Amino acid sequence: MIRNIVILGGSGFVGRSLCEALVERAAGLGGRIMVPSRRPQRASHLKTLPWVELIKADIHDPATLNQWVAQADAVVNLVAILHGSPDEFNHVHVRLLTQLSQACLAAGVKRLIHVSALGVGQSPESAPSHYLRSKARGEDVLRKARHLDVTILRPSVIFGEHDRLINLFAKLQAFLPVLALPGANSSFQPVWVRDVASAIVYCLDHPETIGQTIECAGPEVMSLKDIVKWAGIWSGHSRPVLSLPLGMGVFQGWLMEMLPGEPLMSRDNVASMGVPNVASGQLPGLREIGICPTAMGSVMPDMIGHQSGCDRFRIWRKGPFSR
Fold first, then answer.
1. E strand or H helix at 18, and its extent?
2. What is the DSSP letter of 214?
């Protein structure tokens, strides 16, 4: 029975919902839910949850990673970035998984749930972006680790009360007369964050998911333009959406990269959107593990605009393609 769980990246958007789901699970089982983070002060929302331990730790340090993995029955990896140089993508999506595999081997920990992304099904060599190439290489690292019992989840874009996609587009439409979008016709299958959290918990409790790759996608395929339009409607600030041609989109991404701070969008994001972010239908999905996918329109209208002014400002600064 898995009781003690380490969540890498547990202080983020998906981590919040996962911790809440694991607390419900722990009410019947007990155990520890350990969330190591370099900046635990940013995860104050987790401090009130029973069984959750916020730990100040740098998981990219092998000795520190070994220390906390050794205390676990299972590890969940949520760590990912969507902006960075090729080396930064490699550091987070490949090198960390190599170190995690070694830490699990040293500690005798076999069970690992890794959250990847839809669109990673193609080989690293053929993927159009540094993000997708590094994600594919990371999956390869885990598949080759014979000592691990791995389940890989591939979600589409994830929505929820604290997301940085729907809420950002809602906020932008409150003051921009028109939105110019690269990749406006790119396909997504948005999935609710709580459905992703439920899928992770299911995999922890069902050993038959070992060795599987599960596609986490919602019930609707939508274009980015559709998502933006609905964000505007739900927030009461619907604006026209201008679809930029590929060349203009790449140029816009380059301009945003030049701005200080984390970019709202990068050239690598534009390249990633060239791959449909939808379920292939060739792998098991949420329905196959007993989860009925939640439609975006059934939850987001009541959530948009309910954040405080400070929360909305942080969402705007982080950008739409951050987890």
1. helix 13-29
2. E
Radius of gyration of the chain (CA): 19
Strand 222-223 vs strand 187-188: parallel, antiparallel, or unpaired?
antiparallel
Using DSSP, how many helices (H) and how many strands (E) does the chain show?
11, 13
| C-alpha span between 73 and 107 (Å, rounded) | 10
- Sort 310 into a burial class: Cβ within 10 Å, 0-12 / 13-18 / 19+: exposed
pLDDT band at 305 (very low <50, low <70, confident <90, very high): low
pLDDT tier at 311 (50, 70, 90 boundaries)? very low
Give pLDDT tens digits for 145-180. 999 999 999 999 999 988 888 888 888 888 888 888
Q: Does the CA dihedral 300-218-166-78 come out positive or negative?
A: positive
Cβ contacts of 199 within 8 Å, gap of 6 or more: 153, 214, 216, 286, 289, 291
pTM of the model: 0.90
pLDDT of residue 314: 47
Q: How many Cα atoms occupy the beta-carbon half-sphere of 216 within 13 Å? A: 27
Q: Whole-angstrom Cα distance, residue 200 to residue 214?
A: 10
